[in-house]
Amino acid sequence: MAANQAEEKRTALYERHAALGASFTDFGGWQMPLKYGSELAEHRAVREAAGLFDLSHMGEVWVTGPDAGAFLDYALVGKLSAIAVGKAKYSLICAEDGGIIDDLIVYRVAEEDYLVVPNAGNAATVAAELEARRDRFTAGGNAEGCALRDASAETSLIAVQGPNAEAIVLQLVSDEHAEAVTGLKYYAAVQVEAAGVPVLLARTGYTGEDGFELFVANDRAAELWDAVRAAGEGRDLVPCGLASRDSLRLEAGMPLYGNELSREVTPFEAGLGGVVALKSKEGDFVGRARLQAKKDDGVGTTSGRRLVGLRGLGRRAARSHYAVLKDGQKVGEVTSGQPSPTLGYPVAMAYVDVELAEPGTKLEVDLRGKAEPFEVVALPFYKRQK
C-alpha cells in the first residue's frame, strides 16, 4: 500500500477536487476526479451551459529553435512546419511499423516555439521518443538547432467547455484581451492574462462543444481554478470529472488512446489517414515507408478493418472489447460504448471488417451472450449547433 501511495501522482488541483467531494480514479498513473456527484448532470452541464475540467495530467513538451518545425516534420506524421504562429494541429507520433504511439496536439506559439501535448499515460513515452528522434535528426546529437524541454511536471491545464465557455473566459480577461478571446478560432492559441495569471489560452476542445484550455504554471493553478469558478457562478458552470469527459468525447466521435488508438492500430484503420502527410511533406519521417505501404495496400479502405460508429437499435449498450457480429460470426470488436445522455440511445465505436463499414450496415454486438442489434452510422454521433 505504501508503495502504491508513493507512486500515485496528484495534480496541483487535487485538494480543490477533494474539497468538492470528488470521487477519484487512477488514470495514467494520476489520481483524477471521476465525478463530483452525478456524471449525467456533469455531462448535461457541458452540453447546455459549461463544465470545468482539470486536465493537468496531460503532457507538455516544448520544441524550440530554428529547426524545430523541420524536426517535428521528421518526428511526427504531419507537416507541422506549415502551422501558422498562433495555430494548432492534430497529429500522431507513429513507430517505424506505422503503429500509433500517441495522438497529440501541436501548438505553434512563436516562430521557433512549438508546444506538443501528448496524452497523460503516454507523456513520458512521447518525451523520451522525441529525445531519441531529435538525436537522430540532428546528426550525431548536435541539438543546437532544436531544443526539447519536458514541462509536464510544472504545468497545469484547466478546461472550460460548453455554450457558456466564451462568456466565462471573457470575465477573466481585461478589456484589451477581450478581442483575443472572441476572435480566437478553433485549433488556435494566444498568450493572455486570465484573472491576472499568465496563461496560454487555446480553443481545441475534446467534448464536441465550444471551449477553452488554459495552460498555467502549477503554482498559479489553484488561484486560476478559483477565479474560473467565480466567473462561472452566474453561467451554471459545473466542475466535471473523467466520466463525463468520456461520454462527451464518445458522442463527439473522438478517439481515445488505449481504446480506439494503440500501437497495433495504423492511422488508416482509425480513419486518420488525412493526418499523414505522405504527399505534402518532402523528405523522410519516422514510419513513412511502412505507412506508404499500408496506404498502397488499401488498409482501412479496401482491406483490413476500419473504425466505425455504431448506433444501438435496442436499449442495451455495448462496452469495450465486446464482439461485433454479422450472421453470428465475429467481424469486429467494440472499442468504446455506452448510452448517450444527449441522444437517448446507445452509441459505440468499433473496428469492423472494411466491407461492413458502410453507414446503414446492420450488425450485432454480443452483449454477454445475447446478440443485440446495432447499425453502422457516420461519426460523429453528436454535432453542436453553431
TrEMBL record:
Record Gene3D superfamilies: Aminomethyltransferase beta-barrel domains (2.40.30.110), Aminomethyltransferase fragment (4.10.1250.10), Probable tRNA modification gtpase trme, domain 1 (3.30.1360.120)
Domain GCVT N-terminal: residue ranges: 13-279
Catalytic activity, as annotated: N(6)-[(R)-S(8)-aminomethyldihydrolipoyl]-L-lysyl-[protein] + (6S)-5,6,7,8-tetrahydrofolate = N(6)-[(R)-dihydrolipoyl]-L-lysyl-[protein] + (6R)-5,10-methylene-5,6,7,8-tetrahydrofolate + NH4(+)
UniProt-annotated binding residues for substrate: 213
GO molecular function: aminomethyltransferase activity; transaminase activity
SUPFAM superfamilies from the UniProt entry: Aminomethyltransferase beta-barrel domain, Folate-binding domain
Domain of life: Bacteria
Gene Ontology annotations of biological process type: glycine decarboxylation via glycine cleavage system
Any Pfam family the entry gives: GCV_T_C
Enzyme Commission identifier(s): 2.1.2.10
Domain Aminomethyltransferase C-terminal: 305-383
Keyword annotations from UniProtKB, A to Z: Aminotransferase, Transferase
Known partners and oligomeric status: The glycine cleavage system is composed of four proteins: P, T, L and H.
Free-text function comment from the UniProt entry: The glycine cleavage system catalyzes the degradation of glycine.
Family of the protein in this entry: Belongs to the GcvT family.
Name of the featured protein: Aminomethyltransferase
Organism of provenance: Sinomonas humi
